[in-house]
Amino acid sequence: MNFRLRVWRQRNPKTRGKLVAYEATDISANTSFLEMLDVVNERLLLRGEEPIAFDSDCREGICGTCALTINGEAHGPDHPGAACELYMRKFRDGDTIIVEPFRAKPFPLVKDLVVDRSALDRIVQAGGFISARAGSAPEANSILIPKPDIDLAMEAAACIGCGACAAACPNASAMLFTAAKVSHLALLPQGDPERTTRVLKMVRAMDAEGFGNCTNTYECEAVCPAEVSASFIAKLNREYGRATMRAGE
Ligand code: SF4
Ligand code: FES
Question: Ligand 2 centroid vs 60 CA: distance in angstroms?
Answer without folding.
Answer: 6
